[in-house]
Hints:
Blueprint: E1 13-15, E2 21-23, H1 33-45, H2 47-70, H3 78-85, H4 91-126, H5 138-152, H6 159-179, H7 186-210, H8 213-224, H9 232-260, H10 264-269, H11 274-296, H12 302-314, H13 321-341, H14 350-372
Antiparallel strand pairs: 1-2
Helix pairs in contact: 2-4, 2-13, 3-4, 4-9, 4-11, 4-12, 4-13, 5-6, 5-7, 5-8, 5-11, 6-7, 6-11, 7-8, 9-11, 12-13, 13-14
Amino acid sequence: MTHARTTAPVPALERTHTGTPAFRRPAPAPVTPETLRALRGVRRRALPRLLVVTAALTALLLALSCLALSTGDFTVPLGQVSRALAGRGDAASEFVVQHVRLPRVATALAAGAAFGMSGAVFQSLVRNPLASPDVIGITSGASTGAVLAIVVLHLGGPPVPLAAVVGAVLTAVLMYALAWRRGVSGYRLVLVGIGVSAVLGSVVSYLTTRAEVHTAQEAMLWLTGSLGGADWDKARPLLLCLIPLLPLTVALAARVLPALSLGDDAAAGLGLRVEAGRLWLVLAAVCLAAVATAATGPVAFVAFLAGPLAQRLTGRGGPVLGTAALCGAGLLLGCDLLAQHLPGVGGYPVGVVTGAVGAPCLLWLLARAGRAGQGG
């Protein structure tokens, strides 16, 4: 009686630098044209659902915008909103719609889209749903820059948002350098970002406690995240920055993220310069979060929620940047509407509402990531 021999390949033995024999790690399987065609087929079948979700979110944003332009202390009937926008309404309606409410709506839509796309890029790049700019410290860097400008340099107006952008970019560079170890892994970047965020939070707390009462109040108002002071002077630079940033980020992500989703070795085999592509995409996402934070302050949890919400709506596991941008815009505008009309003191900063909505979602995602083993 003979026994059948196994034909499974046996990993080769090699010796380490200490002379101890060890199994050599097998090379990753090559990405074949058949695999790429299968991936394209799956995406093509999911396209109708993506189009329906995009149309529904666009209609929702339009409805929220009309509601935000119409409601307030001075009510403009919905039928008169389009006339006021076109300059064919009465003087009071035109002033309220064009110069008071439209800048706030435009800032909410633009900043929300930037937060949403930035969060989706980070979460896809790091492959971790917890890796959003407000969790890993990018917005903390922007806050530190702004508070330094207000409290230490006694600046106001346009220099404060500029300091926020500089703070966010410098924080991202510091995080990338600290997380670098022959490349950047997602888990290490998240841990480094949480640590950097804690340190920067301590710096902000120290500066605000040492400042005079009026200066500290000004800094705390900015840190809460608010659309109350939105006007065209704040909205215009944000819109001008996003005109090149949004399409540039989409183009970079379309080139880098599909290849990186196959693993660094396979991406390099496809001809992608892995670290350079990752670095440029991180820089684009940081710029998106920085300009949005400069316009509104560090509004919590919009970047964190937009990506997972977009994936749930589209049923896709991969990046859906356009849908995430629409979700971010809807979240920020919807929460701002809620903040304006909640009973109580007559208007809350939008950051209070997004924080109240986002905190339970963060706990749910932490529990879900722990069960799925995505937390490291």
